[in-house]
Amino acid sequence: MSANLKARAEALFTERFGARPDGTAFAPGRVNLIGEHVDYNDGLVLPMPIAQGTAVAWAITSGSQVEAFAADLDKYDEFPASSPEAPADPDWRSYVRGMAAQWEGRLPGLRIAITGDLPRGSGLSSSASLCVALGRAFSAALSESIDPVTLAKKAQRTEHEYAHVACGIMDQMAIAAGEAGHAMLLDCRTLDYSLTPIPGDWAVLVVNSGVTRGLVDGEYNARREQCEAAAKALGVSTLRDADIAQLEAASLPPLAERRARHVITEISRVSSALRALAANDLASFGEILKAGHASLRDLFEVSVPQVDRLTERLQELIGEVGGARMTGAGFGGSVVAVMPSERAEAIAAEFGDRAFRVV
């Protein structure tokens, strides 16, 4: 957690509640290098945490309520610590109440103030960052430790049950268990993971497209349903268990075929990307990113023209060694670009405060 974000959370808490907090918890956002829309298909992914994230200042009270102040929204909520109910319409309260519910009535009365420096809707997983930060705050309030996998599962359940987003577990695991400067190879079926350092002569840059990503009109949940239908048609439990030969022999309807082809080839791209990373082969890694973007654009149909243009521009600036692709669920958000370290500053300068360097 940056000192500035911690100080901001503490100051906002003091201003709102008239006393200093007992503690401050933090969780980063994440950028996914490759492996998009495969986590809910039990696939392999390659995300990494970023420096920006969410801070939650907290204090125990003598009461039985949770008082929550979302400072960046200037919104307030209050609910019983022992029985948080989901709001009628999902919003920021869904995450606070949903995470509180994961402690099954054991939370004391609390006051919390929430702030962050992740742009909402940027595809950098502000919701999972919020959930993990809340989970760390709640654990600290109970003087308990919590392992990363358990915390990630609580955050995922909150998304499913309170925010009604049928997400996989990549974001939560990358945020709860990731390490700065390292890519996480995560098996979303077993939750086994390993961390590989980004080579020192590589740079990872994130550029916000400026198109606020919402999970447009249920499109995210629709993609999950389409993948489940394709897996059923192929006779496998999930698309992780299918291969291209099965797909080409099956004669699926065109929509199901496109969705399945993306997932099957994307999982293969993750394995190839890890090999390129381990071999310090930036040219090959860049080609994998380019292929991943084309698949998300043409087969999974989750990109938008503004993101495509930004990706193309970054590729022009990078040249032959390195690559760029949309990152996150799609329908807006950010582009991730990997390039030689010496090129990063000049490339980032073109995009001003829309760009930041991860490593």
Automatic annotation (TrEMBL):
<keyword id="KW-0119">Carbohydrate metabolism</keyword>
<dbReference type="InterPro" id="IPR006204">
    <property type="entry name" value="GHMP_kinase_N_dom"/>
</dbReference>
<dbReference type="Pfam" id="PF08544">
    <property type="entry name" value="GHMP_kinases_C"/>
</dbReference>
<keyword id="KW-0808">Transferase</keyword>
<dbReference type="InterPro" id="IPR020568">
    <property type="entry name" value="Ribosomal_Su5_D2-typ_SF"/>
</dbReference>
<feature type="domain" description="GHMP kinase N-terminal">
    <location>
        <begin position="100"/>
        <end position="178"/>
    </location>
</feature>
<keyword id="KW-0418">Kinase</keyword>
<feature type="domain" description="GHMP kinase C-terminal">
    <location>
        <begin position="274"/>
        <end position="351"/>
    </location>
</feature>
<dbReference type="InterPro" id="IPR013750">
    <property type="entry name" value="GHMP_kinase_C_dom"/>
</dbReference>
<dbReference type="InterPro" id="IPR019539">
    <property type="entry name" value="GalKase_N"/>
</dbReference>
<dbReference type="GO" id="GO:0004335">
    <property type="term" value="F:galactokinase activity"/>
</dbReference>
<keyword id="KW-0067">ATP-binding</keyword>
<keyword id="KW-0547">Nucleotide-binding</keyword>
<dbReference type="Pfam" id="PF10509">
    <property type="entry name" value="GalKase_gal_bdg"/>
</dbReference>
<dbReference type="InterPro" id="IPR014721">
    <property type="entry name" value="Ribsml_uS5_D2-typ_fold_subgr"/>
</dbReference>
<keyword id="KW-0299">Galactose metabolism</keyword>
<feature type="domain" description="Galactokinase N-terminal">
    <location>
        <begin position="12"/>
        <end position="58"/>
    </location>
</feature>
<dbReference type="InterPro" id="IPR019741">
    <property type="entry name" value="Galactokinase_CS"/>
</dbReference>
<dbReference type="InterPro" id="IPR000705">
    <property type="entry name" value="Galactokinase"/>
</dbReference>
<protein>
    <recommendedName>
        <fullName>Galactokinase</fullName>
        <ecNumber>2.7.1.6</ecNumber>
    </recommendedName>
</protein>
<dbReference type="InterPro" id="IPR006206">
    <property type="entry name" value="Mevalonate/galactokinase"/>
</dbReference>
<dbReference type="Pfam" id="PF00288">
    <property type="entry name" value="GHMP_kinases_N"/>
</dbReference>
<comment type="similarity">
    <text>Belongs to the GHMP kinase family. GalK subfamily.</text>
</comment>
<dbReference type="InterPro" id="IPR036554">
    <property type="entry name" value="GHMP_kinase_C_sf"/>
</dbReference>
<dbReference type="InterPro" id="IPR006203">
    <property type="entry name" value="GHMP_knse_ATP-bd_CS"/>
</dbReference>
